[in-house]
Amino acid sequence: MPHIYERIPLRPVRDLSGLPASDATGIPVGELYGALAEADTGLLRYLDLALVQPARHVLIPIGHARIMATDAPHVKLRAALLEELQNIPPYGEGETVDDPYESALLEAHGRSFHGERYYAHPGYEHPLLYAGEHPIVRTAPAAAGEEPLQPLSELTHYRIAENEPDIEDWRFVAGGDNTDGTIRDVIVDVGALKVRYVAIELNSGKVVLVPIGFMSLSEENETLCAPALTAQDLEALPAYDGGRVDRADEDVIRSMLRDMLTGPRRYNLPDYRYNG
Q1: Are 31 and 20 in contact (CB under 8 A)?
Q2: Is the pLDDT of residue 219 over 80?
Q3: Could you read off the pLDDT of 186-217 as tens digits, one per residue?
Q4: Which among 28, 56, 140, 216 is least surrounded, fewest beta carbons within 10 Å?
């Protein structure tokens, strides 16, 4: 398999060098040595984190971190804990970042997004669409035993907040080949009052779920697009027949999308999009 450098060259830069870094709980873990950026676009893809203990460097996908603009600016990781960082493949300056290395890196980082940190993953948030604190509004007390993820169309006492678009029946476009579809529903985390997935009816009639973080938005044209995905990608996803969405279903979708977007397509994953 050809190296990533043969397709999307990365070069070390000193951007953000010296910023202290903490894990998801705020425990200091080291400081940034620099970053890796695409040679042609200058877009940052990884932060180069120099860990204090053990003393070594690890790469952090740019979407897995937040830059905290406080009186003492620092980087805070979205999900990884200090002990989990010790299991990330080490990085040596000047080392070739090839496809097998990046696959292992994403798999290792992916293990940090579990339990209550599952939705800290950038695939489950969008910078513009349903980006507020509570884009879904509860209009009655929560019922005992409510499942955490359910389609909004089946939730009697929930609605989309004011000033948020109701995207049901909007056009959907697969950015990889401009294949059309239609938005049929949104899947809601009733605990957090957030949208986690969009239910898309493809031209074939099959309905699939795509995490909200894969979407781009055109309110003017009432269109959602998944720029990274093709019709073939979408048809390969599991069919959604309605009802609640269990964590096992989510794991399958997330794993399949990560496996689809490899090689030159990898940087289309939300893991490589900085979202503040």
Answers
A1: yes
A2: no
A3: 999 999 999 999 999 999 999 999 999 999 98
A4: 140
Gap between the Cα atoms of 180 and 30, Å rounded: 46
Cβ contact 112:84 at 8 Å: yes
Give the burial class of 224: count Cβ atoms within 10 A of its Cβ; 0-12 exposed, 13-18 middle, 19 or more buried. Answer: buried
**Whole-number pLDDT of residue 1:** 34
Average pLDDT value over all residues in the chain: 90
CA distance 12 to 14: 7
Considering only CA atoms, which of 17, 76, 25, 82 is closest in space to residue 52?
82
pLDDT of residue 95: 76
Which residue type, as a one-letter code, is found at position 251? D
Secondary structure of the chain in the HEC alphabet?
CCCHHHCCCEEEECCCCCCEEECCCCCEEEEEEEEEEECCCCCEEEEEEEECCCCEEEEEEHHHEEEECCCCCEEEECCCCHHHHCCCCECCCCCCCCHHHHHHHHHHHHCCCCHHHHHHCHHHCCCCCCCCCCCEEECCCCCCCCCCEEEHHHCCCEEECCCCCCCCCCEEEECCCCEEEEEEEEEEECCCCEEEEEEEEECCCCEEEEEHHHCEEECCCCEEEECCCCHHHHHHCCCCCCCCCCHHHHHHHHHHHHHHCCHHHHHHCHHHCCCC
Residue 6, pLDDT score:
47
Residues in the chain: 276
